[in-house]
């Protein structure tokens, strides 16, 4: 029904069926909208004419009045309604069917001249704006109708529309029509059917207005859906003090609280409540009192000036309350409703499932479950995984955000709210943070050396890089707000300034980032800490009940591991060892290892690193006691670790007791044209076996110490970037030999697995060979995507926006797993691998592990787990449960 009648039309029909009072009407389907764009306006009108006239005649019978009649006129509204709710994006026209004679007839019929003229002037304005193209095109343009209205109000010395009298309203109609004539050269149409067809076509046209197009783009609504048009008999909230109009919600859309609430206005019509022309009043008494408290209005003043509907129209309030309950029970979800009271009679004009915040989403689903309105599976399906993000990160104060000036836009790389002073360098960030200053780190792009700064910053803003750039991945891992690839930023590190448009911001200036929308704001914005409420953990338990595939986390530190464990991760799917090397003494030893000229030199340096690594692993095993921890051997190109600045090189020369020239030469010789395809991954361990030996000793050594202390460490050792089975076998041999030596020395054995990452297409293609040796597969979908597409993930920002715009790519493949390409490699590798090793454990550890549609794909191809950043664990758990429920259905 919704597909054809649009949400509004379908729900109007349904309300009518279940006995909710709705003014009679009919709906022209969304198919006609598509037809309209294919064959054009005139043809469509011809096609519809007969049916529409018959439908209008039906309304006439029900309403006992006649469309266009001057003694007993029927007035209608013409309303838009798409399949998915697009509030306020398209146009609606009220009071259609007026002309100079009809208005007199209506006065004779109702005896209410003010109401009749008020309705007429509203109609001329709306029709002029929507159908005759009088609406201002840009912000500088004034609406000619508003201009006239303002003039008449100021002449009269009143502020509000409802203070105008009959003569003023008459004057408005006359002057409005003159303006129409002046602007369009045509008389305002007086024939009711001419008005109707004009309005119907205008609604179809509004499907393609800029606002609607933009909204569809944001929400992913296809243009082919089209809008329906509902034509409905008018009921009037502007007939005097026993009439009113309003909007209401069956529950609180911000918090989810089960509290009926809404706003209303006496003697008003249509959108007056939301338009902010008059201050609307609260519907319930408790809502009214809460509102007055916030607005600092005394109880006496409130009761007199702004009474609730519950107080002012108690019997209608009772009816409204009963019906809102009925609608919520019928639709089994929170309802957002629109109503009008005409001379003491209540009419519903719209109902829909209300939009809500992430927190409200979870609370409402759980409350409805407890009330027995929905079952457990429905409760899980009601929650949108990505919206859980809002519950997990600090958020901006809503009202503060509204008035904040937006200055730039980038990719919403990691959600949350950050506000602080601009710094450009990691050491400054650390220094300022130590002085309790809040900082936002602004970089062209980040590198591992910036880690310490990122860790203490409120948020990170980069000019370059995509959703899987270093900054983005690390920020998400830290649960830290980040906007990446904000192309409008011109950063000058020397001057310590960033130019955005014409404005220059200096180090120390305040900016704010909304990591959820990618918008950068000038100045400070107030934030609130997010709460993980009891409802969320309850939802998560439900998810566990309905899940086959489990969720692990990508974590490099004990802190991250604990955060993720609290969110329900059951192990570590990827522990990257390289981040551990970036702290003070470790980096010196690391550099010594890389810069050494022979095996002896490397071994000496590695011996210094061993205790550090062991201590790091111990911390992580402890945090994940009893759960598997999958540790990846050293992966990135070595040159990432060496100093590139003169001072750094001189320091290293001193530390190693060699000449600066030597260091300089070594650094030079390490540089590569294409480091991502260069000397990295298992190629390191295969050329420098002593690195693998040291890391194996560190991992298993840490496990042994813990086992001796009565703990239960469960290490998995993972070889990265395999393409050929021999790359793996060679490493496996070193690992197992080293393990055997160590176990003998220590007199303790540890159970462990050796597996590999599948991230080179060749590995996926030869998975059946590789699985003869590897005990598990972990799909590194960041690299696998990079190598399957041939897109460098660090450079994709330069062409991705154009590719998306031209629809060459539907989405960023580094964010949403490409199921047709990369996904096929995964599916094939799993099947091939399990043919030779039926119990082969398979997981995914790329950024995709926390993206709902990718998680669902992983479930479908039979992965045992997904692994994602700590703050995405709940999202992955919910997605995994939904995948299972969808499979069962
Ligand atoms: P939107 O999609 O922007 O919400 P609507 O079609 O719901 O637009 O119309 C806006 C408002 O106009 C409604 O909330 C209602 O108050 C008023 N309205 C629409 N149709 C009628 C009608 N037949 N009688 C009285 N008021 C109406
Ligand atoms: Mg509406
Ligand atoms: Mg990789």
| Mean pLDDT over the residues | 92
Count of individual helical segments: 37
Share of residues in strands: 15-25%
Order of strands in the sheet with the most strands?
Answer: 13-23-22-15-16-17-18-14
Ions, cofactors and other bound molecules = adenosine-5'-diphosphate, magnesium ion
What's the total number of strands? Answer: 32
Cα distance, first to last residue?
Answer: 22 Å
> What is the radius of gyration computed over CA atoms, rounded to a whole number of angstroms?
33 Å
Shape: elongated
State the share of residues found in helices, binned by percent: 40-55%
Largest sheet: 8 strands, mixed
Based on helices, strands and strand pairing, what is the structural class? alpha/beta
Low confidence ranges = none
In short:
The protein has 889 residues and is an alpha/beta fold. It is elongated.
